């Protein structure tokens, strides 16, 4: 694959990933990851200091499924919608079957009463495999620009 093809496949994966979250299809969210994966949401300060954990930390697809189960069955939160704006994807390095990429993101949250706000801004730092044919995240680190996060962080970003 050439760089243009890799970038296109990464951007399509990001679009599909964001649509899954934005449309509330959380049960499908773990399918964007390999069985052994890492998913983290962490502040830029903590990330740059080398910390592993942050606001969210999962080490396998089964842990992602547990997060969805908790979200659906035990977490109480005000109904809300997310809208992801993703862009500026850079391919940091790539091989035959995987790549590392960085994409900017902004997430707008709309509460039930209609109030909208920027919920998160930052970057996705991803390691993606292209094997099998459908690209999947081996690692997705959501690095937030702010060290603060709203306590309403119920779903994934």
Give a concise summary.
Helices cover 24% and strands 42% of the residues. With 157 residues, the protein is α+β, with helices and mostly antiparallel strands. It has one domain: Nuclear Transport Factor 2, Chain: A.
Strand order of the largest sheet: 2-1-6-5-4-3
Proportion of residues in helical segments: 10-25%
Look at the helices and sheets and give the structural class: alpha+beta
**Amino- and carboxy-terminal Cα gap:** 28 Å
Our count of domains comes out at 1
| Major beta sheet summary | 6 strands, mixed
Q: What is the CATH first-level class name?
A: Alpha Beta
Mean pLDDT: 90
Assembly form of the protein: single chain
- What ranges have pLDDT less than 50 throughout 5 or more consecutive residues? none
| Gyration radius from CA atoms, angstroms | 15 Å
DSSP helical segment count: 3
Explain how this protein is built:
This protein is an alpha+beta fold. The chain has one domain (3-144): Nuclear Transport Factor 2, Chain: A (Roll). Helix content is 24%, strand content 42%. It has helices at residues 3-22, 44-48, 61-73, and strands spanning 33-43, 56-58, 80-94, 98-111, 116-129, 136-144. Strands 2-1-6-5-4-3 form a 6-stranded mixed beta sheet. The longest helix is centred in the first third of the chain and has 20 residues, at 3-22. The model has no long low-confidence stretch (mean pLDDT 90).
């Amino acid at each position: 694959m050439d760089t243009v093809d890799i970038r296109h496949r990464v951007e399509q994966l990001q679009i599909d990933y964001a649509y899954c979250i934005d449309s509330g299809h959380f049960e499908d969210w773990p399918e964007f990851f390999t069985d052994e994966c890492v998913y983290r949401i962490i502040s830029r300060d903590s990330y740059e200091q080398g910390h592993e954990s942050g606001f969210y930390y999962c080490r396998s697809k089964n842990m992602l499924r547990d997060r969805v189960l908790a979200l659906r069955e035990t977490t109480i939160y005000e109904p809300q919608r997310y809208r992801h704006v993703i862009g500026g994807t850079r391919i940091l390095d790539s091989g035959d079957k995987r790549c590392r990429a960085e994409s900017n993101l902004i997430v707008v949250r709309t509460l039930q009463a209609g109030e909208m706000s920027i919920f998160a801004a930052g970057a996705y730092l991803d390691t993606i495999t292209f094997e099998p044919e459908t690209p999947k995240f081996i690692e997705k680190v959501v690095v937030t620009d702010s060290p603060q996060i709203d306590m309403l962080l119920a779903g994934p970003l």
